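Quick illustration, no need to memorize.
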Amino acid sequence: MYKKIVVAYDGSEHSKKGFEVALELAKMFESSIHIVSVAHIPDFVETKDELNGILNDARQYYEKIQQQAIERAKSEGIEINCAIVPGHPANGVVSFAESIKADLIIVGQRGRSGVARYIVGNVAENIVRHAHCSVMVIK
């Protein structure tokens, strides 16, 4: 039923819960898990160096938290792939899921920044609205 499961992963408790659900589904359906973390780029960046700094910081952070997920999945014998993409969180997750032809996207109801949710809109809600496949929102 679900062969490719995408997990929107930012290190928050909700994304970790989503990853745990993905592990269980992957065992049931012999699925692969594809973790995607989105490096949010601010609307205004003054210099290319500033942009590169933001992307490098995000890459370092996400590689660290993704490594924990990789080790956990491998200990369960589950195939896992990870990606870090730049952009708006909802658009990044949806575009990534489309690019790999995912069957399911799992996203936490809330991510790392509760305040940012009000500024840029609810990421989970936007993913549900724009995804090409089923979406599971974890509370």
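Residues 114-121 have pLDDT under 50 and may be disordered.
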